[in-house]
């Protein structure tokens, strides 16, 4: 016997205020990302307070960006009930919107602190993947962002998933692809890859952050097409066919695309954006290399321009402190014959 929701989305309640698994999991993901950034920041003598303040500013910015992005594509569902726009605990945030919000916040905050954007973004890249890796389990609890229908045997015998995941993937009257799990595991591999890559001497400033976009977007392109709740729009049929053709190797592995209502759209927005992001990131790496823009390597020291400027200023008290006169050695007076030593 299966239930419509195997896991209660509410962890506990404080009075009449429910605490949702979704928000709790997102919080754990943010803390995991913060931990990785602080640990790597120690190599460059960046104080942990810098990253903690960054988190306090970045998380709200990411949530706002993610919600705006999602609502913009689902406006028909929200325009008559605006209060639902703010109910993020029910799900409905888009990762690309979160990245846009976080990047805008980062550009402003890093400049305020005197750090180069690319250098700090490189440090934060594995942490972003960690947040996404853990955050996807919030979708698991909410039974959202899942894929198309599959047989129970596919989950148990081919993927060898434990019962609590298999049962949670029974939604409506069928089992579904655990796309949350696919993306979570892809993010875990990405963390390991970036940690190895950033130890290589050839890596330039900004290239770890751009590699993050390439890696995540490759996985997102293929995983997105499995989903049945994709944000989509009606676009050129040639573009739609091109995207389907790029995705077709997944069929060799036994996967089928999730259903997308033609009346809703024929192009999954996240899939198209993933492809454009991959191309843009690769092109940006090449252009920056050719033009010699990234003068720093990843391993080079990171210095805040504001901190350096403060160190260069001589304190006023020191400027007015009188310098002691140099000591001049006086010649010894010549000794008289009586004072000469006797032999």
From TrEMBL:
Organism expressing this protein natively: Paenibacillus riograndensis
Function field: Catalyzes the transfer of the diacylglyceryl group from phosphatidylglycerol to the sulfhydryl group of the N-terminal cysteine of a prolipoprotein, the first step in the formation of mature lipoproteins.
Family, as annotated: Belongs to the Lgt family.
Highest taxon listed in the record's lineage: Bacteria
Membrane-topology descriptor: Multi-pass membrane protein
Pfam families, per database record: LGT (PF01790)
Residues that coordinate or bind a 1,2-diacyl-sn-glycero-3-phospho-(1'-sn-glycerol): 136
Region (Disordered): 313-343
Lineage: Bacteria, Bacillati, Bacillota, Bacilli, Bacillales
GO biological process: lipoprotein biosynthetic process
Subcellular location: Cell membrane
Record carries keyword Cell membrane: yes
UniProt GO cellular component terms: plasma membrane
Comp. bias (Basic and acidic residues): 331-343
Gene Ontology terms for molecular function: phosphatidylglycerol-prolipoprotein diacylglyceryl transferase activity
Pathway assignment: Protein modification; lipoprotein biosynthesis (diacylglyceryl transfer)
Protein known as: Phosphatidylglycerol--prolipoprotein diacylglyceryl transferase
Assigned EC number: 2.5.1.145
Regions crossing the membrane: 20-38, 50-73, 93-110, 117-135, 179-197, 209-226, 269-287
UniProt KW keywords: Cell membrane, Membrane, Transferase, Transmembrane, Transmembrane helix
InterPro entries on file: Lgt (IPR001640)
């Amino acid at each position: 016997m299966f239930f419509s929701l195997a896991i209660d989305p509410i962890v506990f309640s404080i009075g009449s205020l429910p605490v949702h698994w979704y928000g709790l999991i997102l919080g754990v993901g943010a803390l995991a990302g913060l931990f990785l950034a602080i640990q790597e920041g120690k190599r460059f003598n960046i104080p942990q307070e810098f990253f903690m303040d960054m988190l306090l500013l970045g998380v709200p910015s990411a949530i706002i960006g993610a919600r705006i992005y999602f609502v913009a594509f689902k406006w028909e569902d929200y325009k008559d009930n605006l209060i639902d726009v703010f109910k993020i605990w029910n799900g409905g945030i888009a990762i690309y919107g979160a990245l846009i919000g976080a990047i805008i916040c980062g550009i402003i905050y890093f400049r305020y602190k005197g750090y180069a954007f690319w250098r700090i973004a490189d440090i934060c890249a594995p942490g972003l993947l960690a947040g996404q890796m853990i955050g996807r389990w919030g979708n698991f609890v909410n039974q959202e962002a899942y894929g198309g229908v599959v047989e129970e045997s596919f989950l148990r015998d081919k993927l060898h998933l434990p019962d609590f995941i298999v049962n949670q993937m029974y939604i409506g009257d069928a089992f579904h692809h655990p796309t949350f799990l696919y993306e979570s595991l892809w993010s875990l591999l990405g963390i390991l890859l970036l940690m190895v890559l950033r130890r290589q001497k050839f890596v330039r400033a900004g290239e770890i952050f751009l590699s993050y976009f390439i890696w995540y977007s490759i996985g997102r392109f293929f995983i997105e097409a499995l989903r049945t709740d994709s944000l989509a729009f009606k676009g050129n049929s040639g573009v739609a066919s091109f995207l389907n053709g790029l995705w077709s190797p997944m069929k060799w592995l036994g996967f089928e695309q999730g259903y997308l209502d033609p009346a809703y759209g024929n192009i999954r927005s996240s899939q198209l954006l993933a492809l454009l992001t991959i191309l843009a990131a690769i092109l940006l790496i090449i252009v920056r290399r050719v033009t010699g823009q990234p003068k720093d390597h990843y391993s080079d020291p990171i210095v805040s321009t504001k901190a350096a400027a403060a160190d260069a200023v001589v304190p006023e008290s020191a400027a007015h402190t009188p310098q002691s006169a140099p000591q001049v050695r006086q010649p010894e007076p010549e000794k008289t014959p009586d004072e000469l030593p006797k032999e």
